[in-house]
Amino acid sequence: MKTLVIGATGIIGNNIVRKLIQQGHDVVAMSRGQTPADNLKDLDVEIVRADLYDEQSLIKVFKGMDWVFNAAPYYPQSMFHKQQHVTTALNGLRIFMEALKKTSVQRVVYTSSLSTIGMAGKGKVANETFPYALCGKDPHPYFFVKYLCEEELVKAVHEEGLSVVLVNPSGCFGPYEHKPRSLCFIPQLMSGEVPAFVRGDINIVDVADVAKGHILAAEKGREGERYILGGHNTNTIDMLYDICAVGGIKPPKIIAPIKMALAACFISEVWALMTKKLPARPALGIRFIEYAQHVSSEKAIKELGYTISPMEPCFEKAIDWYRKIGYC
Q1: CATH homologous superfamily for 2-324?
Q2: Structure pTM?
């Protein structure tokens, strides 16, 4: 089976690449860079270059592929310019879909977001049946963009016959992360750069499970359906203490109110906007916690054969990786 992984340098995409190789697939990693990223070196994978916003470039890459994993949908990092984010995301998605129509790709697995799952309410557990309910009051452009992209894809499945399965990973942890250190929580925690934290109910998962879930979705998923690829329902306090225990460090003691944390993030976002740099304290991280909730992966377990691993070994592998690349 010849498979293309878009976003092969990201933590999810890179783990998908590694699982596909383990299973004997012929893997092609799509890159926009001129040289292989560190987490692709020494892997038995072909690297191709393409532009996600150029239809002809994508058609060339898609030809001959059986499966395509899109683990790099548009990701709005800034809290500003919502309409610009929406336009960019939808333009890119439509180019992606048009390119697919002109090739013989059998199955697409699209990495969506847990933020598109509607809120279940206090004390309840959400699943794929809960519709997005933040239209008009979206806490960050990321939320609305992810919702709109899901809507476009499901519409294309039903009206245009595209074979797309959507997966919604929860909070991923594990090795092979390649994004800037400033956006990585564990290295900052291990280096004492997280003086305070906010409390919230969350779901966390070993990214290796998520990678396997993507492949199971390609094999068994129903077209137009979405599958939560989650792990353990917990809260930020317990998670932070567990990571610190594995890393052998003392956890921060200050619990900050979410509004205070958002105020600090707003200042960081404004400064980033002015200096044209990534924010040191992105507001999106706090918004994730504010609107996070406990979720069920029962649908993926029953329909795909998805399984959930313990988190402690995952934290160990993540810390080892960050140390290896000099992040902590």
Answers
A1: NAD(P)-binding Rossmann-like Domain (3.40.50.720)
A2: 0.95
